Amino acid sequence: MKRLDKYIFMEMVPPFLVSILVFSTVLILGKMTLLTKLIVSRGVSVMDILWLVAAILPSFLVFIVPMATLMAVLLAFHRLSADNEITAMKTAGVSLYHMMRPVALLAVLSYAITMFLCIHALPWGIWSTKQTIQKIVKAHADVVLKEGIFNDVAGKAVVYMGKYTPKNKYMEEIVISDERDPRVRNTIVAEKGHIVPSSDGKSISFRLMDGVISRVEGGFDSAQTVSFRRYDLNLPLEDFWDLSKVGRRDTEALDPFEMTMGQLNEVIRNGEPGTERHQMALLEYHHRFALPVACLVMSILGVSLGVQFSGGRKSWGMVIALVIFFVYFILYSATKSLGESGLVPVAPGAWAPNVLFGTLGVYLFLQTARETRFDWVDRMLHLWKRLLENKRFSGFFSS
């Protein structure tokens, strides 16, 4: 029996690891255009980008690991079923319940990995991401500015650049509305200019050429216009990016999703119930324990889908698995948003996806263990086949 458990477990390990690698790569590739632009155009170092990717990765992995668990179990049991090995095992007296032992081992392993990610890696990753971005902003202040749009500066100023060349930090068609002084509104229009390095690393320095400054005092009592050949303007970097909490790890400086479990417990224990911060901390606390349980839920679903969708129905099994996890993620996000707004109780909302899909998984597993075929799957496939054979529908689908 131990040899059989090891055999089934080893069937699940390769697709589990490959799924993690593939899903992680896909998600990271979605950010590669921006990251490459930061390296090539803005001069950000490769090490800073690699550290930023490492910091972002835990926020991906907390969802990737449960998904990889589902795919690993599904693919392993699909192969066992397609090769009639499950039938042979049942003939030898090994029921589907006994085959769940290696599945349980993988589920517990993925649960432990996800729990570590939620408890330790996720808050570290979020905090490190903010730290790295703040470091990049301080070293390369122009990353916060984009050409062709109005860049809002903390509601105190607006910067517009018609054209911008990151290589030499050259700007054209510049409009800056400076309202930092509530008594005076300055509108600066310049044909060209440069972003020059600041000596303190705490401001963005604009060197503007060939322009005018329109100054209007409060109440529009007086106005004046001044032309200039060269004008230097410094905007504090903290107006673009909040630097007041850089380097701080105390509870007051962190949002709940950045906190360690000890800090969350402190806010929940000492905070005033009903306040937004207390609600957010309680919600984050429950979700960090609820999300790893998804690994257990997905493993049960994977067994049923793998056995039922054998033979020519393999692709349908994978599609349904992806749909199930997508619906789980949507429900997870919806209950979290409703919990943040106070429309649903925190604990029931956080655990509702696991309860719903766990119940579904147990039901499907019991049906599979009794060798009950999912007739609804055959009816759905038959309907889909008829739709594809319909010329009108197939023509519409292909167009």
Strand tally is 6
Most strands sheet? 6 strands, antiparallel
Shape: elongated
Helix count? 11
The share of residues in helices is 55-70%
Residue stretches low in confidence (pLDDT < 50, at least 5 long) are none
The separation of the N and C termini measures 54 Å
Going by helix content, strand content and strand pairing, the class is alpha+beta
Give the amount of beta strand, in percent.
15-25%
Largest sheet, spatial ordering of strands: 1-2-3-4-5-6
Describe the protein:
There is one protein chain. The protein has 399 residues and is α+β, with helices and mostly antiparallel strands. It has eleven helices and six strands. Strands 1-2-3-4-5-6 form a six-stranded antiparallel sheet. Helix 1 runs parallel beside helix 4 (100-139) and helix 8 (314-341) packs antiparallel against helix 9. The protein is elongated.
Keywords:
6-stranded antiparallel beta sheet; 399 residues; 11 helices; 16% strand; alpha+beta
List the helices and strands and how they pair.
Layout lengths: L1 H39 L5 H37 L2 H7 L8 H40 L10 E4 L3 E9 L4 E9 L5 E13 L6 E15 L5 E14 H4 L20 H10 L5 H33 L5 H28 L4 H24 L5 H15 L1 H8 L1
Antiparallel strand pairs: 1-2, 2-3, 3-4, 4-5, 5-6
Give a short overview.
The protein has 399 residues and is an alpha+beta fold. The chain is built from eleven helices and six strands.
